[in-house]
Structure formats: structure tokens, C-alpha cells
Amino acid sequence: MWTRADLKERGKLCFHRNYAASVLAGLMITIATASIGGSYDVRGTVNGVVNDSSYSADISLPIVGGVTLFVLILKIFVLNVLMVGAVRFFIENRDYNAPVSKIGFGFQNGNFANVAMVMFMQNLYIFLWTLLFVIPGIVKSYSYRMVPYILAEQPDINYRDAIRISREMMDGEKMNTFVLDLSFILWGLLGAVTCGLGVVFYVKPYVEATNAELYVTLRNKWNMGNTKTATFDF
What residues form the membrane-spanning segments (predicted)? Predict the structure, then answer.
């Protein structure tokens, strides 16, 4: 059984060890998951404080047709793919000082189209659940939380398997993960009193490094429970 203190301590050590690169990778995730052009974000944000889960559903409100289309294309084909690369950075940064170039991982090795498709489907699923009211959307955002991480290690996985495995990994862990997010509220206040600088230069990379620790913990637990039937070698 994992503990918040253990995950956060390990995440803090990893991000401190490779500080500058971690800040840049965290900034990329912030940009990739930001609400753009009046969109509604259901990442489970707690009281306006940064939620650092990596999945979002963007419900774009009508702005100007061309601008909205541009933002949607940018989200699907650039920002989502960069977010997977940033997640890959934090996973690898657990073991060594990963280079910033890892952020471009989603565009490499001929898997760009699949990475973009899987992330689009994740966003679409959360959006559809959100149509049933906000709470189901938030719950499903936790169910699908690990999709970018799974993609970061298996960029050729299809969206059905990625979503299924994420749901299995998060089974029984959604409330614990929600509480983990809540534990960063006071750190989020640092961002408020520093006009966001505290978030960029400390809170976000700290949170994302902790999320990587959570993913690896749940991945290892999932693998142990699927030793006879697992299809994917993480």
C-alpha cells in the first residue's frame, strides 16, 4: 500500500536532482492541460488550485469559428502529444537525469498518429461523461488518469486497451489519488501569492514528479495482478 508521504518524498528528490529540466517539463504539462479560449476543464481541480492530473476534457465554448478550430487542432495534434512526452520525461527522470528532449517523445518512432488518437479519445470519453453532469466527468477523469503514462511507455497501444488498463490500475485508487491531489492545496497557495511563479518553478514539477511515482507504483501493482494474462510489457 502506497502512502502520500512516500510518493511525495521520492518525487521531490527526483525533481530536485534534475531541477531545470523538471521545471521545463512541468511547464509543458501546464500549457498542455490549460483551459484555452473559454474551455471548461474537468481535471478534478480542487478549489481552483492546480490539479496535476494529466487528463482533461475541453468543452470549447463558441469564440470565433476559425480560432476555435485552430485551438482544437493545436490541442489534438501538438499539446496532447507534448504532454505525453513530458510525462515520459518524469517517468525516466526517476532513474536518471532525463534530458528535456524527452518532451518530444510522442513525435518520434512513428507513433505520433496513435498518440494523438489515444489522447483525443481519452478527452472525448471524459467530455461525454461530463455531459451527464460534472461529477461523473471528474470521476472518469480519475479512472482515465493513467492513459498518458501508459502511452508514454507503450506509444503503440490502442485507445481501448489504454483506457481499460487505466481503469484497472485506478480501481480502488481514485479516492486515494483525490486525497493526494488535495494534499497539494497549500502548495497551490504559494502560486497564488507569487503570481504563479511558485507553481512554475516549484509546485508543478514537484507534483508531476509525484504523479510519476504514483503511476509506477500502480503499474507495478497492476502487473503483479496480471502476471498470467498481461499483454503489455511495461
Answer: 21-40, 60-91, 112-139, 184-203
